[in-house]
Amino acid sequence: MTAQLIDGNALSTQVRAEVAQRAAALTARGHRPGLAVILVGDNPASAVYVRNKVKACADAGFHSVLEKYDADLSEAALLERIEALNNDPAIHGILVQLPLPAHIDDHKVIETISPAKDVDGFHVASAGALMVGEVGFKACTPYGCMKMLESIGLKDLRGQHAVVIGRSNIVGKPMAMMLLRANATVTVCHSGTADLGAITRQADVVVAAVGKRNVLTADMVKPGAVVIDVGMNRNDEGKLCGDVDFAGVREVAGWITPVPGGVGPMTITMLLVNTLEAAERAAA
Ligand code: NAP
């Protein structure tokens, strides 16, 4: 059996077209969606991510602002800038690209963003809203994974066992919470899990969000399972690869996401969705 691909690029194109349409309607009513992206320092990977996010905004017809600061920007100056954006009516979403330089406290920065503009979904208020089932912003990467599941008819996961590998605040934990809200029976694994394969072999859906190559191999997957690969790593040739042994697992799984072209494009797409929703809420 060779798994079918869940194509993140194709799904992104479709969702972004819908976003652009809704954005145009909102703009026509005088409420153009606006995203501010802040980059501190000169991390080359961050610069690429930020550029892609700003371009995606422009393509969807959003107003977008990219603010770049030197690595020695003080924490106080960054917080002051965020406060100004919190009060700027043309900006509906604020994204501070992580990681920040070591002298700046990530947590303090995220908590300074108004929850109404927290389009990354990292604020404690957003995490809390997800936990209790209230309206907030969902973290973009797990939100994109849920969209991918929905695209193959898995919107309701009643009766399915979903296993999440990884428990970070930005991927693993919100992923588990979203799967739970979709009625899956959820198991969360991490570095302290004994016999990971024994657990993943029971899964109908596996989400790998670790940051290590080959964390999930063919012998760890139930035939026909859905495998979502969030990981972003480099292989020996320096090429982008995920956490999943793609070549092996695709022979066992029913569905699989590739890297690149899987979860990555969906993350940016869901940032656009969140920013649009923020603008729609502000205009309501
Ligand atoms: P993270 O904060 O480093 O968390 C990694 C998680 O994996 C931790 O919970 C850790 O457990 C767990 N882990 C480590 N080794 C393990 C093992 N051998 N078996 C089982 N679990 C293990 O990383 P993250 O921010 O969640 O990101 C995870 C990966 O996704 C990275 O490759 C990142 O680049 C990628 N990512 C991709 C996107 C995208 O758009 N495609 C977005 C975000 C992240 P402990 O908690 O016990 O340490």
In short:
With 284 residues, the protein is α/β, with parallel strands linked by helices. It contains 10 helices and 11 strands.
Description:
This protein is α/β, with parallel strands linked by helices and 284 residues long. It has two domains: 86 residues, Rossmann fold (3-Layer(aba) Sandwich), CATH 3.40.50; 124 residues, NAD(P)-binding Rossmann-like Domain (Rossmann fold). The protein contains ten helices and eleven strands. The strands form three sheets. It has a six-stranded parallel sheet. Helix 2 links the parallel strand 2 and strand 3. Helix 2 crosses helix 10 and helix 6 crosses helix 7. The longest helix is centred in the N-terminal third of the chain and has 21 residues. The radius of gyration is 19 Å and the shape is globular. The model has no long low-confidence stretch (mean pLDDT 97). The structure holds NADP nicotinamide-adenine-dinucleotide phosphate (NAP). The site of NADP nicotinamide-adenine-dinucleotide phosphate has 26 residues, from helix 10.
Strand coverage percent: 15-25%
Rg of Cα set: 19 Å
Task: Find the structural class using helix and strand composition.
Answer: alpha/beta
Attached small molecules: NADP nicotinamide-adenine-dinucleotide phosphate
Mean pLDDT across all amino acids? 97
CATH class of the largest domain: Alpha Beta
Keywords: Amino-acid biosynthesis, Histidine biosynthesis, Hydrolase, Methionine biosynthesis, Multifunctional enzyme, NADP, One-carbon metabolism, Oxidoreductase, Purine biosynthesis
Organism: Ideonella aquatica
EC number: 1.5.1.5, 3.5.4.9
Pathway: One-carbon metabolism; tetrahydrofolate interconversion
